Amino acid sequence: MHKNNADIYDPQFVKGMFDRMSKTYGLTNYIASFGFTDRWRRQCINDLPFIEPDAVGFDMMSGMGESWGEIQKRIGANGQITALDISDEMNRKGKKHLKRFKLKNIKQRKLNVLQNDIPSISADFIVSTFGIKTFNLGQQKIFAKEINRILKPGGVFALIEISEPNSIVLKWSFMFYIKMIIPLIGRLLGNLEGYQMLGKYCEEFKSLRIFHGYLREEGLNATFKNYFGGCATGVYGTKSENP
After folding, report:
1. In a 3-state reduction of DSSP, which class is residue 19?
2. Positive or negative, the Cα torsion across 220, 83, 60, 65?
3. What is the CB neighbour count within 10 angstroms for residue 202?
4. What does DSSP say about strands 106-110 and 123-129: parallel, antiparallel, or unpaired?
5. Distance between CA atoms of 30 and 225, rounded to whole angstroms?
6. Where is pLDDT greater, at 18 or 153?
7. What is the pTM of this model?
8. 32, 182 in Cβ contact below 8 A?
């Protein structure tokens, strides 16, 4: 277990947590969210501004590739996705996903997106779904800078994350569910600790509101959005053609 809040944001801690959770993550996530995470992923990717059908870009903190099918619908058969994730086991699950669904033009890389070798001005789009809660505020600021650095002028982005709802009643019930019920589901499937940590991350994270501000500080045209009363929040937008 973690010793303090700083430890849980260490990339190696996060990698180890997701390596251990990988066997049950997809099933637990779907059952525990009643399918809402799949719906929110679709909404997030649909919120991407206009994108050319042969676009090249990144799915960051890509997990097991849950977003790839929706991204491909936006970029077409000739578009290219590079999927980045720090977890060996999540990447291994993603590789099986590629084979099972015969997804095309997708390349996987094991990479810490906060310390990467991605060329500047190289992406038409950047997507990230349910990965940013494992960043503290300093890391979020770095990530915003990286998005700005990597995107081409006119490039687009969309990100989404589980968040604390706006309504007090909804917030209480939603956070109780995330912090108490989801760990019980995780325990039944063999990983109590990992799902307890997801509740901790969500409680500390709050929403993408601050990250939205960091994107705007970088000069990106970013829009903030609530999903289902704030149970998830998103940001999407463009990099100016003339920065």
Report:
1. helix
2. positive
3. 20
4. unpaired
5. 22
6. 153
7. 0.89
8. yes
Domain boundaries, the chain: 7-238
C-alpha dist (Å) from residue 100 to 17, 21, 78, 94, 218: 25, 21, 20, 10, 39
The span from the CA of 202 to the CA of 179, in Å, is: 9
The pLDDT of residue 8 is above 80: yes
Q: What pLDDT does residue 2 have?
A: 46
Cβ–Cβ contacts within 10 Å for residue 213, how many? 16
The string of DSSP codes covering 48-102 is: S----TT-EEEEET-TTTTTHHHHHHHH-TT-EEEEEES-HHHHHHHHHHHHHHT
Tokens standing for residue 11: 């990339």
Rounded to 5 degrees, what are φ and ψ at 109?
A: -140, 135
Fold of 7-238: Rossmann fold (3.40.50)
Q: Indicate the residue type of 29.
A: N
Under the banding of pLDDT at 50, 70 and 90, the label for residue 164 is confident
